[in-house]
Amino acid sequence: ADDASHILTKAHEQKALSILQKNMRGAITRRQIKKQTAAVRVIQGAKRMWDVRKLHGKNGENANILKKWYGKHRAQQGKDKLEYRMARLQACFAGYEVRR
C-alpha cells in the first residue's frame, strides 16, 4: 500500500478532485449571480415604473397639468414680450414726434 505509484495515483486523484470542486463552486456561484442579476432587473424595472407613475400620475394627469401650466407660462411670456415691444415702438414714435 506504500509503493510510489499508489501515492502518485492518490495525489492525482486529490488534484483532480480539487479542480472539479473548484469548477463546481465557480459554476454554482455564476448561476447564483445570474439569478441575482435577474432579480435586480425586476426590482429596478418596478422602481422605474413607480418613479414614472409618481412623476406623471397613473393616467398621465400630472403631465397634462404640467402641459397646461407651461402653456400659460409661455402665453404670459409672449404677452410680456409684446407689451415691451409696443412700449418701445410708442417711445420711438413719441420721440420722433417731439423732434419733428
Summarize this, please?
The protein has 100 residues and is mainly alpha-helical.
Structure characterization notes:
There is one protein chain. This protein is an all-alpha fold and 100 residues long. The protein is built from two helices and no strands. The model has no long low-confidence stretch (mean pLDDT 91). It has helices at 4-56, 61-99.
Give the structural class. Answer: mainly alpha
Shape: rod-shaped
Rg, Cα atoms, Å: 39 Å
Q: Main beta sheet, described?
A: none
Report the order of strands and helices.
Answer: HH
- What is the mean predicted local confidence, pLDDT? 91
Q: Strand percentage, roughly?
A: under 5%
Q: Treating each run of at least 4 consecutive H or I residues as one helix, how many helices?
A: 2
**Tally of DSSP β-strands:** 0
